[in-house]
Fold this sequence. Notes:
The chain is mainly β. 4% of the residues lie in helices and 48% in strands. The protein contains 1 helix and 11 strands. The strands form 2 sheets. Strands 2, 4, 5, 6, 9, 10 and 11 form a 7-stranded mixed β-sheet that branches. Strands 1-3-8-7 form a 4-stranded antiparallel β-sheet, with no helix packed on it.
Amino acid sequence: QLQLVESGGGLVQPGGSLRLSCVASGSSLDDYVIGWFRQAPGKERERISCVSMSDGGTDYGDSVRGRFTTFRENVKNTVYLQMHNLKPEDTAHYYCAAISNIRTLSLRPVCRMTFPSWGPGTQVTVSS
């Protein structure tokens, strides 16, 4: 059974950077799409990014495009979220999630599906 664990969260000052990791166990990620999501208190969960583990294709939400980058390292069964120019509004609990890739569809519609497998998340706090 696929299990995901996030790490790398913490407290960072505005303008700073963090790199989150999502490590999978129990199954190879090669045939999955991995999404990064976040949720702040009192707010709805927001999709940040997606990456296809098969070809590295990516998709980003409007609020993070140009500041966040997601990339994969298949040999380590790991996906990363590199965050730059962090803002206080980026403060949230960050999660990675997995969905089996559907090769007959482009990445974007797959990223908008319901992801069945989730990690417990890691907290990111942006504050001075």
